[in-house]
Design a protein that fits this description.
CATH architecture of chain A: 3-Layer(aba) Sandwich
CATH topology of chain A: UDP-N-acetylmuramoyl-L-alanine:D-glutamate ligase
Shape of chain A: globular
CATH class of chain A: Alpha Beta
Strand content of chain A: 25-35%
Number of domains of chain A: 1
Helix content of chain A: 25-40%
Radius of gyration of chain A: 18 Å
Distance between the termini of chain A: 34 Å
CATH superfamily of chain A: Ribokinase
Number of strands of chain A: 13
Largest sheet of chain A: 9 strands, mixed
Oligomer: homodimer
Structural class of chain A: alpha/beta
Number of helices of chain A: 11
């Protein structure tokens, strides 16, 4: 099995009530790849500038992440600066500098093109076809999106959704795309538009899956100290797909377990700044959290 | 086993995007008793005015609800008029007339005083001692509250909480009482204050239990059409306690199942106006919904 993730690698400056971190490593691709690496050996397609620290790339390689698709380009790495309120659900973007990401055309190395699973993370929906055309024999394509594309390229986004198998959205995005306030109806509506399954990430309220013949709901892993929510959604998707890739079976039973692993890995992320929680955890930590979480949900 | 519920019986006028109903039967005691009646034969302590329809009392009796504690007094029945937004979580109170509830002193009939479970539903926390002093041999006391008491009698409320075994709160109330934004910390803090278990009702996001040695989380039963959310929380508590009463075992396993039954019965309520969903459902409907919900949550 094999999973390829196409997403950003970035510098983030993050302010939360617990403190501030300047220019730490972030990006949707980084979070997703690290999360997936607990389960499989993902390939990462991205671009960074010459200012990006080589030792962090070595760190990713040591987690068995394949960086054959990572370009190092003249210029500066994508930069994002955000601030969270006392309520970790409220965040303000202070600065976004696209830099080398500006005119990034993701070209997949030959070895990535026959990947079983491909994840298009927060990309311009108009760039999807360029990637899809490179794939040969991929079994599942997954995508995530952000509010920016919903507001600025709604038609391209809808076309892109119709071509994927798994759509990750948060509850707000789900309602916005479906133009439907009731989340259950919104999820079903998006599922009917094409994807095999809609994965709705509800943050502190857990997640829901909408498949053709089933609905699955699961609470979030309770967390007493939300230090930094950045990347939780990306890590959820990465763990979800990494787990699926490790099983090779894309049935309802495994999709449900994938969502729980997504939950569990996302709970690791928010307990610390940036990717620190992901870097510190072992596979055993993930298994332990999964087992504890099973007990929490049991009735 | 036996369960006694002390709460209001009311006329409600309800406006929602699905329509308007004038002076239909409502009240926290009504919802809780009807919900409990799927599992046990609850006693109801309340007061209504002479304007209250006898045929509805017969309806309650036909559901095996013991009305020995229901007073019919000179005057008008408690009246509430509320309006819900497109978002069913947002509601505005347009009118509240306490009427006969104004100077109601709940006196329990002799046969109610040795009840195993007693539920104090949304009562003035200063009236709790008057009721507790009437009890002989009760095993569990449960209470619910409303924002009004949190804001107007915070100290009396905290004293009341310390004396009960089960506290039902919604997520907002939990945060307000505990003065703590993080719901997990807030729930644990309230539990440490005295009750054996805190039951946090999260509406469309499900419920959480905080016990001394466990946390339990469960999503809500997905609902595509929220017609009228009135009484969902009261029905949740009534079903929770009704189920517990029917088992006679107040351990962790049964508390978890009780919360799921609470969930399931609350989902019946919101699909129709007032108590219509509760009146229409049979015990078999509850069992079917429970089994379907188990499948939805399974992983």
């Amino acid at each position: 099995m094999s999973l390829v993730i196409i997403g950003s690698v970035a510098f983030d400056t993050i302010e939360t009530p617990f403190g501030r971190r300047d220019r730490i490593i972030g990006g949707s691709g980084t979070y997703a790849a690290l999360a997936a690496s607990f389960f499989t050996r993902p390939g990462l397609v991205s671009v960074v500038g010459r200012d990006f620290p080589r030792r962090f790339l070595d760190r990713l390689r040591s987690r068995k992440i394949d960086l054959a698709g990572l370009k190092i380009k003249q210029g500066k790495t994508f930069y994002w600066h955000g601030r969270y309120d006392q309520d970790p659900n409220l965040r303000t973007t202070i600065k976004t500098e696209l830099n080398v990401l500006q005119d990034f055309k993701p070209v997949l190395p030959e070895s990535f093109r026959k990947a079983d699973l491909v994840f298009l993370s927060n990309l311009d929906p108009e760039s999807h076809d360029f990637i899809l055309d490179q794939l040969t024999g991929t079994r599942l394509v997954a995508m995530d999106t952000i509010r920016y594309w919903i507001e600025n390229k709604p038609e391209a986004l809808l076309r892109a959704i119709q071509k994927v198998d798994i759509l990750f959205v948060n509850d707000e995005e789900c309602r916005l795309i479906a133009r439907e306030l009731n989340l259950v109806r919104a999820g079903r509506k998006l599922q009917a538009a094409g994807p095999k399954v809609i994965v709705v990430k509800k943050g502190e309220h857990g997640a829901m899956l909408f498949g053709k013949n089933f609905v699955f709901g699961v609470v979030a892993n309770p967390c007493e100290r939300v230090v930094d929510p950045t990347g939780a959604g990306d890590a959820f998707a990465g763990a979800f797909l990494g787990y699926l890739d490790s099983t090779g079976r894309f049935n309802q039973r495994e999709l449900r377990k994938a969502a729980v692993y997504g939950n569990v890995v996302a709970s690791l992320v928010i307990e610390d700044f940036g990717v620190d929680g992901l870097l510190r955890a072992s596979q055993l930590d993930i298994i332990n959290r999964y087992q504890q979480f099973r007990k929490l949900c049991a009735f």
